[in-house]
Amino acid sequence: MQVIECARCGRALKNPKARELGYGLICWRKIQGERAREQRNADDSIVITPTITDGYAGARGENGEIKVVRIRNGRQEPLRHLVLHSPSGFEWGYSGSGPTDLARSIIADVTGDDNPHPGIYQEFKRQFVTRWKDRWEVSLEKIQSWLKERKAAQ
Fold it and tell me: 50 and 67 in contact (C-beta within 8 Å)?
């Protein structure tokens, strides 16, 4: 019998439904949650009009829904949520799991490292994310400069 592996985690799939999906049932639930968050994050009712051409921006809608985008050359796309602390999505303006995942996802995107050191993204959260209001933006240049200064201070 051929061993079929989960396309997400690589474990052998024993359950017939999991084999049909190509994912273990836990991984499938995680993927569905990620997709739901991405859809909420891509909410077209929230319009972000940044003043920067490269960086990140976020806005909170009237009902508390949020949108966070990655901006490159003026083009916006949803920022990929690297789920670690907050399964319910990004947040900002305080020090919690949502702001922590936002900081971690931004730092990971800037550095190209999907597993940035907690000391870096926690400090970024304290210095930036906790201070953001309903609408915010931060340039790629500002983040890169902050990372460079932080590295020089070590």
Answer: no
